[in-house]
Design brief:
Blueprint lengths: L1 E3 L6 E4 L5 E5 L2 H7 L4 E7 L3 E5 L3 E5 L7 E5 L6 E6 L6 E5 L13 E3 L23 H4 L2 H11 L1
Parallel strand pairs: 3-10
Antiparallel strand pairs: 1-2, 2-5, 3-4, 4-9, 6-7, 7-8, 8-9
The structure holds zinc ion (2 copies).
One zinc ion (ZN) binds next to helix 1.
């Protein structure tokens, strides 16, 4: 899967499928995206291969208070992925809207639905939680194994 920014300077490809995909309806993601929710694909950062350009890290406040580093194209400033300070730089949250075929990536869960926009109708085929959730309880075994390999 390949993706990139709006001006074409930053291009990347994912070396495998993501471990998990969050659709986050928190008010922070709404503000950051200027939209109703953010869709983030969680993947090992070393599986995000830059094929052109070099995104620039921008420190941004986050809901947890720990902040996040959003990687943006230095020219058009589109956010391509981010690292949350909780999980650190090994884990990338790729903005699935920047994938060329973002429609191939579907949320595994909808989170922070307590603050979702009232006109957003959640699909029946993905779990939804009012706030956050436990990866141990929700993620498939294969993804949990990848996650523990990443942080071991
Ligand atoms: Zn750009
Ligand atoms: Zn959020």
């Amino acid at each position: 899967m390949q993706g990139g920014c709006a001006c074409g300077e930053v291009r990347y490809e994912l070396a495998s499928a993501p471990m998990w995909v969050n659709a986050c309806h928190c008010t922070w993601c709404q503000r950051e995206t200027g939209s109703a929710f953010a869709v983030n694909a969680l993947i090992e950062t070393d599986r995000v291969k830059l094929t052109a350009g070099k995104p620039e890290p921008v420190h941004t406040p986050s809901l947890s208070g720990k902040g996040q580093t959003i990687l943006r194209c230095p020219t058009c400033h589109i956010a391509v992925w981010s690292h949350y300070n909780g999980a650190g730089p090994k884990l990338a949250f790729v903005r699935t809207g920047t994938l060329d075929a973002g429609h191939d990536v579907k949320p595994d869960i909808h989170i922070f639905t307590s603050t979702k926009q009232p006109w957003v109708i959640l699909p029946g085929d993905a779990p939804a939680v009012p706030e956050y959730f436990s990866a141990k309880e929700m993620w498939p075994a294969e993804s949990l194994a990848r996650r523990s390999a990443l942080f071991s």
